[in-house]
C-alpha cells in the first residue's frame, strides 16, 4: 500500500478505522503512566487522537508518524500547540530515532502480512532497552482481502517472542463495541 493509497482513503473520507476519539484500551493504559518525559511513538497514527490525549495529559515527548500527509495536517490544526518537529511525515520503516514506548493501534493490521517480520524487527530496533511496544491486534480474520489484515494470538506470539518478552497478550475487555471480542491487548517488552 503506497502513500497514495492512504492519501486517497483520507481524501475520500473512506476511513472506517477512525474512532474519532482516543482508543479506550490505550487511554486506560496511558492513564497508568506517570513518567511524562517518556519518548513515545505512534506509528501509522492517522488522526492521532492518542497523541492528542497524551499531549493534553502533559506528556512532553510524543512523536507521530504517517505516510499520509492529510491526517497530519488536520492534527496540526486540531492540536496547534503540539510540537511541529514531532509530526513526522514519512515511512515508519525509515525512522531511526529511539523511543521508550511505541503505541500500536490499527497500524500493524494495515501493513501487508509480508511486512510483519520487518515491523517486529523495526519496532524492536526503535526501542531503548526495556522499552515497550503496547497496543491492540485483531484476533480474527477478515472476509475481504485487506487492509485490514487479521491474525491470531499464536501467530503474534511466534512473530514477536524472539525479540520481546510477551508480558501480556490477552482478550481485550474494553474494546469499542464494534471490535468487542475481536481484539487482543498486548504489552511486549524489548529483550
Ligand atoms: C488503518 S489506518 C490507522 C490510523 C490510526 N492508527 C487509527 O487508528 O486511526 C493506517 C495508517 O497507517 C498509515 N501507514 C501505512 N503504512 C505506513 C508506513 N509504512 N509508515 C507510516 N504510516 C503508514 C496510513 O497512512 C494510515 O494512516
From TrEMBL:
It holds the Pfam family TPMT. One of its GO terms (biological process) is methylation. One of its GO terms (molecular function) is S-adenosylmethionine-dependent methyltransferase activity. InterPro entries: SAM-dependent_MTases_sf, TPMT. SUPFAM superfamilies: S-adenosyl-L-methionine-dependent methyltransferases (SSF53335). Keywords: Methyltransferase, Phosphoprotein, S-adenosyl-L-methionine, Transferase. PANTHER family: CYSTEINE SULFINATE DESULFINASE_CYSTEINE DESULFURASE AND RELATED ENZYMES (PTHR32183:SF6), PTHR32183. This is Thiopurine S-methyltransferase.
Amino acid at each position: 500500500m503506497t502513500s497514495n493509497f492512504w492519501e486517497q482513503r483520507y481524501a475520500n473520507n473512506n476511513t472506517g478505522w477512525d474512532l474519532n476519539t482516543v482508543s479506550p484500551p490505550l487511554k486506560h493504559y496511558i492513564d497508568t503512566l506517570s513518567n511524562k518525559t517518556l519518548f513515545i511513538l505512534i506509528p501509522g497514527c492517522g488522526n492521532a487522537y492518542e497523541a492528542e490525549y497524551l499531549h493534553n495529559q502533559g506528556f512532553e515527548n510524543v512523536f507521530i508518524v504517517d505516510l499520509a500527509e492529510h491526517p497530519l495536517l488536520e492534527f496540526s490544526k486540531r492540536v496547534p500547540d503540539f510540537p511541529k518537529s514531532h509530526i513526522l511525515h514519512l515511512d515508519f520503516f525509515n525512522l531511526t530515532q529511539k523511543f521508550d514506548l511505541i503505541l500500536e493501534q490499527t497500524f500493524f493490521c494495515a501493513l501487508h502480512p509480508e511486512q510483519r517480520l520487518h515491523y517486529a524487527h523495526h519496532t524492536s530496533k526503535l526501542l531503548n532497552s526495556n522499552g515497550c511496544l503496547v497496543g491492540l491486534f485483531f484476533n480474527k480474520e477478515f472476509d475481504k482481502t485487506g487492509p485490514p489484515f487479521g491474525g491470531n494470538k499464536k501467530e503474534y506470539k511466534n512473530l514477536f517472542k524472539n525479540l520481546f518478552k510477551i508480558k501480556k497478550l490477552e482478550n481485550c475487555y474494553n474494546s469499542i463495541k464494534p471490535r468487542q471480542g475481536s481484539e487482543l491487548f498486548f504489552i511486549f517488552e524489548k529483550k
